[in-house]
Amino acid sequence: xxxxxxxxxxxxxxxxxxxxxxxxxxxxxxxxxxxxxxxxxxxxxxxxxxxxxxxxxxxxxxxxxxxxxxxxxxxxxxxxxxxxxxxxxxxxxxxxxxxxxxxxxxxxxxxxxxxxxxxxxxxxxxxxxxxxxxxxxxxxxxxxxxxxxxxxxxxxxxxxxxxxxxxxxxxxxxxxxxxxxxxxxxxxxxxxxxxxxxxxxxxxxxxxxxxxxxxxxxxxxxxxxxx
Length: 227
Known about the structure:
Blueprint lengths: L9 H9 L12 H5 L5 H7 L5 H15 L3 H11 L4 H10 L1 H5 L3 H6 L8 E8 L3 E3 L3 E10 L5 E12 L5 E13 L4 E9 L11 E9 L2 E11 L1
Parallel strand pairs: 2-8
Antiparallel strand pairs: 1-3, 3-6, 4-5, 4-7, 7-8
Helix pairs in contact: 1-4, 4-5, 4-6, 5-6
């Protein structure tokens, strides 16, 4: 696979990354590499500058797989890579997507998104506090930069979906990444469906929507979901 990573055919170069992915969908897990992914790193180093986006996407996904078992290794690797070239920065962003959704502060700091001080939401309201499974609501809010400098912001929200046993499981939805000038305010409005999906069944009970800014929970609102 190291040899494939230098081949003139981009399909074979991509196979060098895909073929040793720890958790390739629809294929057996590679238990040995899940325990120790170090042997795959020379392949990823070779391919991070590949001319083909098709290949670079595989590198990002491969590293994201590694992050699920070895976050410290991935953070160390991507911190070294970030800033080398724009296309490598893109790889790093996609490689860290799982850690960023988990609000990992060490991942956020790579992009300067770890601090939410003086970034405050306000006027968070729902279009309705009670709805039925299959319907949708919208919520809206303002976001203000109350600091004395321009700020980079990663804005997300998460919903504590109720499971069949009554416990909850958070699902994170990204809204936007943007810069906000000092003392500026920005308005947001989002729709959220509660229809049945092949990947998620809905169950009646109170659900909580929480705004997350640069990895920090800032405000929340609840709704009642009924049959």
